[in-house]
Amino acid sequence: MGILIRGGEIIDPGSGTVVEADLLVDEGVVAAIAPRVDGRGHQVVDATGLLVAPGLVDMHVHLRDPGQTHKEDLRSGTMAAVRGGVTTIACMPNTAPPIDHPTVVEYIRSRAQAVGVCRVYAIGAITQGLAGQALAPIGSLATSGVVGLSDDGAAVANARLLQQAMRYAREADLPIIEHCEDRQLTDGGVMHEGLWSTTLGLRGIPSAAEEVIVARDLLLAEATGARLHIAHVSTAGSVRMIREAKARGMRVTAEVTPHHLVLTDEAVQGYDGNSKMNPPLRSADDIVALRAGLVDGTIDVIATDHAPHAVEEKLVEFDQAPFGVIGLETALGVVLTALVGEGVLPLARALQAMSTTPAAILGVRGGRLAVGAPADIVLIDLRRQWTVDVQTFASKSRNTPFEGWSLRGKAVLTLVGGQIKFSELPVEALS
Fold it and tell me: Is 217 a catalytic residue?
């Protein structure tokens, strides 16, 4: 028995097509898209008034599994994903042990198959133990199925080592995903260096801490021909350099988080640990540049940088709280409300940045709605008004800066491989 999604507005961000039609899912793929499909013998979902879109692909997620499963694990993280319309996630390697060996990749694969509810891909470490001293076995990691390489949480400080990693990554056709931060310039900072850090008496992190590593990495990528993906871009200077690199034809892509698109460093004034992330929230001018970069294609992807922490870890003095916020269950709503709803970003461009493009960068299937494509699908109610309530989250963690926000637009049904993994809609069978 297949699933017939009847009467929805079907959007394929990859091709730019939008059509009101029925969509039939059978044997894990999109079997038909037509004005009218016979529903006999299938389960039927009434999608009248709903948007039918490819499942979201989040290429920057911290699952904390293995090693810190009190914060998140493969079950809770993937449950949070499907509740947010995300059908594919790529998990970062800063676990314990880190994803620096094929055995850890195999653990993630087998564990995801056993308890996960969405597709999970691993990103391998660039260096052994994420220590920045010696390269991880990149060839073996590539063979084991990783979809990218990163020491996320830190930049690879040794430029020569990173250059070597880029050469290996180029041969394996894997993107190097860099967390761009010069720790010497960060120097113990906890928020953006500016008016608000001075006002609040907190040590600031200058924009240059990100930008000097972006500049270095772009030079190394240009010299090696490697694919470089710059994670969680946060400054106007970074956007400018990426734009210039793309104009020269470089193989560079970049991502931005929802929180960096809608919140400034002013949000820190309450000393709430849930407004502490790395890179930090920046200035209003940086938000303007980030949004412009997303609109013109300088920034390719919207990713959450979902970083769970236990409640008690954030309920400390701001200086002592760990960096990071969660985002899997709020990203779609924030983007639809603050960007699409306010006319900053066209709907198709937003969905492209959250599905089609990240899938292409990682080289995984997804982000398309066409006959024969995987039936990874999200139904979105663009009119649904809802309030962010952490007590309803599937994630084990609660560290969101969006608690209490009123959002418009929500995932109401998520299919992965043709199977319903989350639904707020009735499903009927027609005989």
Answer: no
The pLDDT of residue 429 is above 80: no
Give the three-state DSSP class for 254: strand
Give strand pairing partners of 25: 3, 30
Domain assignment of residue 190, given as a range: 69-362
- What is the total residue count of the chain? 431
Burial of 374 per CB tally in 10 Å (0-12, 13-18, 19+): buried
Residues 393 and 280 in one domain: no
Residue 14 confidence (pLDDT) = 87
Given a cut of 80, whether residue 289 has pLDDT beyond it is yes
Which candidate in 151, 305, 376, 381 is catalytic? 305
pLDDT at 281 over 90: yes
Query: Which one of 334, 362, 390 terminates a domain?
Result: 362
Q: How many CA atoms, within 13 angstroms, populate the side-chain half-sphere of residue 94?
A: 19
pLDDT band at 132, cuts 50/70/90? very high
* Contacts (Cβ under 8 Å, ≥6 apart) of 3: 24, 25, 26, 42, 43, 44, 45, 375, 415, 418, 420, 427
Compute the distance between CA of residue 152 and CA of residue 68 in angstroms, rounded to an integer: 16
Q: Please list, in sequence order, all residues whose beta carbon lies within 8 angstroms of the beta carbon of residue 413, skipping any fewer than 6 positions away.
A: 45, 378, 379, 420, 422, 423, 424, 425
Q: How confident is residue 430, by pLDDT bands cut at 50, 70 and 90?
A: low
* 267 and 318 co-located in one domain: yes
Task: For residues 54 and 378, give the distance between their C-alpha atoms in angstroms, rounded to a whole number.
Answer: 6
Share of the chain above pLDDT 90, in %: 97
pLDDT tens readout for residues 344-367? 999 999 999 999 999 999 999 999
Domain count, the chain: 2
Coil, strand or helix at 111: helix
407 φ, ψ (degrees, to nearest 5): -120, 155
* CATH classification of the domain holding 159: 3.20.20.140
Q: Does some domain include residue 36?
A: yes
- pTM (2 decimals)? 0.97
DSSP for 114-130?
HH-SSEEEEPBPSBGGG
Phi-psi region of 297 (alpha: psi -120 to 50; beta: other; left: phi over 0): left
- Report yes or no on 97 lying in a domain: yes
CA distance 294 to 209: 22
| Nearest-angstrom CA–CA distance, 119 and 53 | 17
pLDDT given at position 427? 81
125 and 237, same domain (yes or no): yes
